[in-house]
Amino acid sequence: MVAVKSVFAPYIYVCTRMRVRKAKLIPREEYMRMLNMSLPEITRIIQETQYKQEIDELSSVFSGIDLIEVALSWNLAKEYQKILEITPGNLKQFTQSYLRRWDIQNVLTILRGKMQGEKVGKIKEILVPAGSLDRVMLDRLLAEDSPEKIIDVLKGNRIYPVLSREYPVTKESGSFSRMENELYKQFFSEIIAEAESGLKGGKQFLDFIRFDIDIRNIKTLFRLRADTFEEDARDMYIAGGVFSAADFANLNTVRDQAEFIELLKAKIRNSLLISLLDELKSEKAIRDVESRLTRVQLEQMESLSKRNPFSIHPILVYLEKKKYEVFNLRALARGKESKLPSERIAEYLVV
Fold first, then answer.
1. Which of 112, 113, 223, 281 is deepest in the core (most CB within 10 A)?
2. Which residues are CB-neighbours of 175 under 8 A, at least 6 positions away?
3. Reported pTM
4. What is the pLDDT of residues 239-253, one digit of tens each?
5. Are 205 and 145 part of one and the same domain?
């Protein structure tokens, strides 16, 4: 019995630490309070939380929105690295795999910024070096003067083949949506293979991945209905969830909202998601739909975490909630900087 406990002790420790960290995240009431504050007041509030060290370190170099942007990015990357340091065995491998999605986000942010002529400093502010591409490599990419050279530097990286294949289409169309989708197709294909490879804990990781894919595909279908994409719907589908490619294509042809929702529900087993879809029968703004789908995804992750308290789930729940805390604070700061009404800023928050 003692030997069994000693084997599970590192898992118990890290999952307990995740719950402690999650309890320190900013609650919904605090966001509602910040909606009525000025940018300097919001900065002071942030300085009183887990972001104090970054705010203090950077305040001599940055101010206003720039200070918040850089502090949030630094804190998020450092927090993710700390979690990797304390995460044992297979849980660490699955966590590293999950964090590779930041490579996609960071590279796309750099490519978009370069194509739009953004200053290097502004691009760097919002990068989060939490994946396999560290701060040194991201700085090297930022130093290149063209998207072609940036992609060339990434030769040997697992995302290079997709980048090199898709860039000509992206350059011609001016849209990154196809490239982004192709990168995520590759990402999900790789981590599904890893989760199915027989590693202990892979089943729990696979549960998270498949639901993530379902949410992503549903969001894409709603975006296609809102006519925000001109790309072929079949190219936007990601395999690995409950929908087949044929399901996805058929759903995209249904124009009636109520019929569309019923067909979606027929494919889904998750009760939280089914309840939400019932609420979406009346037409809603795409931003509201995406925000509510994200909230359901977080609720499902919480449920999985409670059912599997010493697994990858408590770690993934915290990583996702921490990400959305940064997302929310950034939305608040940008909204205040742009002098948007509080009601409009609230629409962007995931709480």
1. 113
2. 230, 231
3. 0.92
4. 999 999 999 999 999
5. no
